[in-house]
Design brief:
- 4 copies of one chain form a homotetramer.
- With 135 residues, chain A is α+β, with helices and mostly antiparallel strands.
- Chain A is built from 3 helices and 6 strands; from the N terminus they run ααββαββββ.
- A 6-stranded antiparallel beta sheet of chain A has the order 1-2-4-5-6-3.
- The first copy, chain A, is globular and about 45 Å long.
């Protein structure tokens, strides 16, 4: 799990958007984002791009947790409730996996436990290991 | 079109991610993002969340260009080619519209004109005007 | 629940495609499809349209189980494993609901319990009841 | 183009749903479906599964027109307008292609030329030819 934590640390966009890793295990991950002023859109709610990025990081960590590079090829997000303050959590679960392709479902929730968005993502899994030498 | 430009300027997340508005007309919009180090993921390519946010801004501007608030309810993105340097452009076009719902297709392209990602988005259109007093 | 069962019986396309209702409760549903020769595509596997239709029926029953008409506005399907023989089951669960919009996740599985496809669907809920007089 | 026409003829589900091939060229295809009573859902409009299947056939023909097997891995559909009578047309266009993955956009229109649904599909392209010996 060290290499996947390093994988997360090297994600500059995740850092730029203020996303922190909470948990990771093989095929699943949990990340959080404390809502800041810079996350808002012109309706004063958290920007869809910020919510997507949070879900996408959980997805990236979960799908890369197997030790081989997984490239995201498709993602679908449905927005359920607007978010304005507090902390958002995204939790990714692996739903199905075959040697080349895998699918993940990510739920984004707010402090009240309400679902903010649902994200369904698909990866194409390449053969090379992320960093097998350090595992 | 003044109110939609103000709508874009008030988007703090768009500013945080370095997105600029190039063009807007009723039902369409074009935005750009010069790739910076902070846009990269741990594979050293532009983060899916950054590409999504770029497309999402074009989508938001195009769908809010009618003068009534349009809330994004669903988005689907397919990633075609990785991007590493240069400038990315996202162009949104309205594909279909009815009083409540509308659909947009957004193409993200790189400096070579190659498609980086395709984004399909849907909005639920509310009645209230963005800022009718200044139109 | 009588009106929702009638709702299912009146679905002519579901009948044409050989789909049967197994279970329904508020916000969830289970349907099945015994694979027949007419479900196959030219690769001799179950056609994506047949798998989608099966999932869509579970989605329609679950989303219309509240007694108000719910119109499907978006669906996303990821195909995980090809199916060739036996019976496919689709199970729909309501993930989130607000007065106007709701989201459902549907899993399609085969006789081995393996996931064939994942379906994420969104409805726009209208006010009128399906048939409140008989509830 | 003979092999792709044979590919279409061998699609039993397409035949079961009453879909006809109108045009095919490398990367694009056009199919039609005359609305019959068996296409309707319990709201007396064309079933989402029938519309999806129509779009999916255009997608399958377009993506298999290169002479190598293309397996659908993801599809997203947005429904714009209900259809009740007449003929529906689905037209598929290849938006982007790389050696392994390709993306298609399909528009479904009615007799008035109005858009009924938008479909975005992705294939994973395998190496083997459909039937190179007969080309």
């Amino acid at each position: 799990m060290e290499s996947i934590k390093r994988f997360f640390k090297n994600d500059k966009f995740g850092e730029h958007v203020g996303i922190e890793l909470l948990e990771v295990s093989v095929g699943s991950a949990k990340v959080k984002m404390e809502i800041k002023d810079y996350h808002l859109n012109s309706h004063k709610t958290v920007h869809g791009g910020a919510i997507f990025t949070l879900a996408d990081l959980a997805f990236a960590v979960a799908s890369n947790s197997h030790g081989t590079i997984a490239a995201s090829i498709n993602a679908n997000i449905s927005y359920i409730k607007a978010a304005t303050t507090g902390t958002l959590i995204a939790e990714a679960k692996e739903v199905a996996i075959n040697p080349k392709l895998a699918t993940y479902t990510i739920h984004v929730t707010d402090d009240a436990g309400d679902i903010i968005a649902i994200f369904q993502g698909m990866v194409y899994r390449k053969k090379a290991a992320i960093d097998a030498s350090h595992e």
